[in-house]
Structure formats: C-alpha cells, structure tokens
Amino acid sequence: DSDEDAAAAEIDDEEEHSVRRPRAVVQKFMCERKAVGDGFALRRSIGRPELQSLDPFISLDEFEFSRPAGFSDHPHRGFENVTYMLEGGLSYHDFSGHKGTINTGDVQWMTAGRGVVHAEMPGGEGVQRGLNLWLNLSSTDKMVAPRYQELRSRDVPTAEKDGASIKVIAGEALGARSPIQTRTPAMWLDVTMRPGARLRQPVPAGWSACAYVIDGEASFGQPGDEAAGAHHCVVFGGDGDGVDVRSEGAGTRFLLLAARPHGEAVALDGPFVMNTSEEVQQAREDYLNRRNGFEMAAGWTSGQ
C-alpha cells in the first residue's frame, strides 16, 4: 500500500507542474504480425531482439486468436499478467475456481505471485483481439498470494481534454484515477486523439516508458520527429518529466505504458519470471510436485 501511495504522490506531483521537459524518443520500430500455430498471431513489441525487456516490463503483445487456438492449463509465477481486450472476448478458468469472460474494453489484472494455473480460450466466434502485458514483480513480491482484479469497460475511468480522450487502466491521467491496485507502481493509458490534437502527459521521474500505436499515427518527442504509425513501438528516454504527443493524419489511438523499474536481475523461462535460475528451477519443481503455491493443481483440469 505504501508503494501505491508513493506512486500516486509521484503522479500527483507531475500533474501539478505538467510537462516542462518532454522525454526524447530513443527507439522506434514496427511490430510485424507473426502467425504462431493455427488460429493465433501476435505483434510483439517488448520481449523481442530490439527490446528484450523494459524494466519492469517483460513482454507486451497485441494478439489475435480464434478457435481452435487457445492456451490450455498452464502455470505462472513471479509477475503480473494483464489482458486488455480490443475486440471480442477471452474466457478464463483457474485452479481456484475463478472463471469468466472479459469482453471488448474489459481488463483483467492478474497477480500470479507464488503460483497460478489457468486456461485462456477465445470467448466467442471469429477473431478475438487484445493486448497482453507481463509486468515483473520485485523480489519481495514474487511469492505473494495470487490476486485477480477485473475492470469492465463501463467502469474504466475516462478523462478528456483538448481533443484527447484517455481511458485510465492503471495509474492516473487528467485527474482520473484507476481503481486497479498494482504491486509495481505503474501507468497504463489507452489514448485516442482527434486529428491535430496534442497531449502532454506527465510521467514520474525514473520510470520506464513506452507507447504502442494501435491505430492511426502520431508524433512523439520533439517537434519535427517522424510520426509513428499503427503497430509501432516507441520507447522514451529517462530524461524528462513526461511525454509530448501530437496526433497526425486522421487521428490516433495508442497505449502509453510507464512503471517504476526494479533494477534487479531477471531469470525468465517459459511461464516463470524470477530473479535467479535456481528460483526458476524451484518454480518448475514446485509446479510438477504440486507444492508451495501449486497445491490446488493436484487433480484439477479446466476441461479446455
């Protein structure tokens, strides 16, 4: 809770003086669509050769899937798994009995902590499309109890100013604050801007930050910088107090992500994100032996 209060205070401080020193763009690249099996494709921005991670972000994917694709029963430990639906739905079921479907505009913020086993499947007919983020947990939070937070589209706080409309999935913007409580102080904004609009969004000092363009195009950083089009990832440098965005052409919709880095070693192997290879091996053994957070996996199946 103290971390959450501190993060809110950081954002409040930034909001008070707005953006005086916009962060520069240090990296920009196109995220190509890649098919992975039958019925599943993704555009990966974080977690690829050009950007293997952006502490504390482990991966960020724009995904699309349709039957027969899906993710049958599988484990997680050590991070927060966030799914935000852009079109269609995603159905889920975990070993504690938590199940349901999130639909267009809904978000599920799952803290895997010490252990979750779940299945994720298309929530309807046709193509389902969304964004999935893996947000690392600090070493002190790796083994916390799992937690789900779900926010329906109608309940997502929204703010508007000067041609920009912001859905606040996590953190705060333009005075609107999300009810989502993150273990790692973070900001997740879904921003839509009319043609020619401008947004100067504060980002706390020291936080990692990037943008992912969903539709349209926008200029980030300094005036005169080349615009980034749909499916581009834009990474901001650490020097500055916020980001300066100008909508180009017919307007734009983009995701703005920012979070306080941990500055810790990361050991990533499949569904486990820990600090050392020994901890990853321990997670694998705990899952196989149904212990230390995976006890409920014994005899359980989602049926998917």
TrEMBL record:
Residues that bind Fe cation: 74, 76, 118, 120
Boundaries of every Pirin C-terminal domain copy: 189-293
Pfam family, one: Pirin_C
Necessary cofactors: Fe cation
Domain (Pirin N-terminal): residue spans on this chain: 40-135
Cofactor binding, note field: Binds 1 Fe cation per subunit.
One term of GO molecular function: metal ion binding
InterPro entries for this protein: Pirin, Pirin_C_dom, Pirin_N_dom, RmlC-like_jellyroll, RmlC_Cupin_sf
Keywords for this protein: Iron, Metal-binding
CDD domains linked to this entry: cupin_pirin_C, cupin_pirin_N
Family: Belongs to the pirin family.
Protein name listed in UniProt: Pirin N-terminal domain-containing protein
Organism: Aegilops tauschii subsp. strangulata
